[in-house]
Design a protein that fits this description.
This protein is of the alpha/beta class. The chain is built from 9 helices and 15 strands. The relative contact order is 0.18. The mean pLDDT is 90.
Length: 287
């Protein structure tokens, strides 16, 4: 039975994504994204599931940077999950307001307008996950609240005070399934939405028009780019790499041509994964 690591504890959206996709396996929760990816790197687990992008707040930079700078792993699948953020309170909550509201930084950001309008004096406290936020509220009592999902409420005995408090209705998060040595993934009965390939491109220094020529290498081959994002190389100001999502699987014709063309410009390329993308359905009592 394969061992599947995820950003824990049990009440996280990552666990919901893993439960929805994998029909069987031994699930192991980790307190942080780095801890989960380190477990994949060391072989403690066979696969890891971590958040990589939210439709409202954008990329999860901790995941991206750790995959680039700290570990050598490939993305082998992408799971897109609808996100419903709820305001969770202790079952003994008396309506007296909150001193602190706990959650992951992404979850708090997704609900910032709601929190500003309804709880402007509450201190917002970051946690490693929404599941951990629920655990803290269960421990600290009635003058605290958490933002999380219905699973977190069930796992910790909290009550959903207000459902669906995220600021924008179309709230989805993409989760990456990663593996140290890529191998075919058993997707069960899940339907593939599309195939994608993610590559990292590092531009040469002091090369005028380099980014334009990088994009042109894809454009004239009619390869659709669904995302391009810059991230610092961490080697000094002004040094960046680019993450590019291409909406097609890696092949033996177009991608080698792109690689050869860009290397002639002095660019460096790294394949981060070629993988199927799945749109998952999550059953929620508040949907």
């Amino acid at each position: 039975m394969q061992r599947i690591g995820y950003l824990g504890p049990k009440g996280t959206f990552t666990k919901m994504a893993a439960d929805a996709f994998f029909e069987e396996g031994s699930f192991i929760g980790y307190e942080s994204i780095p801890a989960c990816l380190d477990a994949v790197e060391s072989g403690d687990v066979d696969l890891g599931v971590v958040p990589i992008e939210n439709a409202i707040e954008g990329s999860v930079h901790l995941t991206i940077d750790y995959l680039i700078h700290e570990v050598n792993q490939a993305v082998i699948a992408e799971l897109t999950v609808p996100i419903q953020q709820h305001l969770l309170v202790h079952p003994d909550y008396d309506g007296g307001g909150f001193t602190h509201i706990y959650s992951h930084s992404q979850a708090l950001a997704q609900c910032q307008q709601y929190l500003y309008k309804n709880y402007p004096t509450a201190e917002l406290s970051y946690t490693a996950s929404t599941g951990r936020a629920a655990e803290i509220v269960a421990e600290k009592g009635i003058h605290t609240a958490a933002i999380g999902n219905h699973l977190a409420a069930e796992q910790t005995g909290l009550t959903i005070l207000k459902a669906n408090i995220h600021d924008y209705e179309n709230n989805h998060t993409r989760f990456a399934v990663v593996q140290k040595t890529p191998s075919p993934l058993n997707a069960g009965n899940h339907s593939i939405q599309k195939h994608k390939t993610t590559i990292m491109v590092t531009l040469p220094k002091d090369y005028v028009g380099a980014l334009h020529q990088v994009l042109s290498a894809f454009a004239w081959r009619k390869m659709n780019l669904s995302k391009i994002e810059s991230r610092p190389m961490k080697t000094g100001l002004g040094n960046y790499f680019f993450l590019i999502d291409v909406d097609q699987p890696f092949d033996d014709v177009l991608f080698p041509g792109v690689k050869a063309e860009l290397e002639m410009l002095g660019c460096k390329l790294k394949l981060l994964g070629t993988y199927p993308s799945y749109l998952m359905e999550i059953n929620s009592p508040n949907s």
